[in-house]
Amino acid sequence: MTGLRASTCNNLNSASGQPSQAHHFFSKIFIVILVGLLAACSPLSVLNALTPNGSSEVMHDVAYGSLARQKLDIYMPEVSIRPAPVVVFFYGGNWNSGNRADYAFVGHALASRGMTAVVADYRLYPEVRYPRFLEDAALAVAWTARNIYDFGGDPGRLFIMGHSAGAYNAAMVALDGRWLAAQDASPDIVKGWIGLAGPYDFLPIENPAVKPVFFYPDTPQDSQPIHHVRPGGPPALLIAAKSDSVVNPKRNTGRLAQRLRQNHVPVIEAYYDHVNHAMLVASLSQSLRHLAPTLEAVERFVNANGKIADHALPSP
Hints:
Elements: H1 21-40, H2 43-49, E1 57-63, E2 71-76, E3 84-90, H3 104-112, E4 116-120, H4 132-147, E5 153-163, H5 165-175, H6 178-181, E6 190-196, E7 236-241, H7 250-262, E8 267-272, H8 277-282, H9 294-305
Parallel strand pairs: 3-4, 3-5, 5-6, 6-7, 7-8
Antiparallel strand pairs: 1-2, 2-4
Helix pairs in contact: 4-5
């Protein structure tokens, strides 16, 4: 459920297929260099520095609510491909840490593949506990649906994505319609959702940092995304690292994928070698894409499920 932090040594890159021995050799050299950089500064700062902006345009500090942490950044692809499908991204961090600026590499990565990316902050513990951060997540998604036309996005092709604790937020907003309904938005605005190493079935809670967030041991059963799967729900792309020691991939990704199939909800399930819990989201960075085809999988999923809406307008 953790995100990438300044004390967390990040890692590697992505590509499909079997890398050659030479490829592995140079990858190891790159990792040695990268580890040296990570020792000197924040891993997320390194990832952002190594991710070129390309032709994406960024709008910073856009308020989606009235509170201090209810802000988001919007990463827009080049004008020629607008209106573009929209992906709202939530980062991880045990619901007690994280900042949208640290995940600029995610926004630029998605924009480089023709998606309008919205990277949103949300309130954290100890300021709030469950379910207040879900209210923020739903508010950010509802705001995006109502306003993203003005930034070259197509609200008729809106997706939610998250990593770790952020994947939990994405899952709950996508699967449990009460959160969007509370924002006067229909759950049908979500055309699909993407979870990276998400905790979807994590009771009893073992992580000491998470226990107070969910009032453990009095955690409500309906706080678990797996209990909100329903027929007719939005398609899902669930990706996890095989070697994830933070969020058990079989229990969380595997069980949720099985429950979705039992309810006839389309789901793509993928497990990657060569990455761990934190490295999975890091593989979206351009310099770290050769170890897991995470960005390619997201792009394929969005393109497959994002049919152009009849009401799509030209870019402003």
